[in-house]
Design a protein that fits this description.
This protein is α+β, with helices and mostly antiparallel strands. It has helices at 2-41, 48-65; strands at 69-73, 85-87, 91-94, 102-105, 108-112, 120-122, 127-135, 140-149, 152-162, 169-177, 184-189, 201-205, 210-218. It has a 6-stranded antiparallel beta sheet, with helices on one face. It has a 4-stranded antiparallel beta sheet with strand order 2-3-4-5, with no helix packed on it. The longest helix is centred in the N-terminal third of the chain and has 40 residues, at 2-41. It is elongated.
Length: 219
């Protein structure tokens, strides 16, 4: 009697093991096909800002292959790059987090002053990607911003260069493109040493138009 019970128990275990083996083999066989089908049916959400930055920086990326430019993209954080910097030997500004003005002192640009000349552009509530570049042969530094507005990227391109004939003159040119079918509100801000001078400028850019702004910053 005891032997029959043991035999039946072993038989059930063998059946369960065989069934599990069949199910595992079936999943192993059809699993990749099901996964590919699910991936095909599920849309891949790619950040449109990445394509926007790539399109704006395409020419400079080609220049960087010949060492005529240095580029940085926020979505490629491990990419080696040089700090973007623009100057003329008398004044200079790095396009980093501070963007503080440096002036000539003791034979080189070593003295930072409490002034941030670069005008910042922001769109409240929009996600963003950024890129910076320096074109060595022209001496122009670039800052690229793309803001995601309902899957439509709003492009902002900054060009910064130091005027060589007037050593204390720094020029920033901003181009903003609004591809939306509605007006767009932007905030322009320039940091200052005093809070009273740090009032942001709010502008409205009409639908499907562009805006070009040029700032002449004299030390």
């Amino acid at each position: 009697m005891f032997t029959n019970k043991k035999f039946l128990k072993n038989k059930k275990l063998r059946k369960a093991f065989l069934l599990a083996l069949i199910v595992f083999g079936f999943l192993l066989y059809v699993g990749p096909s099901v996964f590919r089908w699910v991936r095909k049916k599920t849309p891949i959400m790619i950040d449109p800002n990445i394509g926007c930055i790539a399109a704006n920086m395409n020419a400079l990326l080609r220049e960087s292959q010949f060492f005529d430019a240095s580029v940085y993209r926020s979505y490629e954080p491990d990419e080696p790059y040089f700090l973007p910097y623009v100057g003329n030997g008398k004044i200079g500004v790095p396009l980093d987090n501070k963007e503080e003005l440096y002036v000539y002192y003791k034979r080189y640009l070593s003295a930072p002053i409490s002034y941030h000349p670069i005008v910042q552009v922001d769109i409240p509530g929009a996600s963003t990607q950024e890129g910076t570049a320096v074109h060595y042969t022209s001496g122009i530094a670039y800052k690229f911003q793309c803001f995601n507005m309902r899957r439509h990227p709003v492009s902002v391109i900054h060009q910064v260069y130091a005027y060589r004939l007037a050593p204390s003159l720094l020029i920033q040119q901003i181009e903003i493109m609004n591809p939306l079918n509605e007006d767009l509100t932007l905030i322009l801000r320039q940091e200052s040493s005093t809070s009273s001078e740090n009032t942001p400028l709010v502008i409205t850019l009409q639908t499907e138009t562009s805006l070009n702004i040029k700032y002449f910053l004299k030390k």
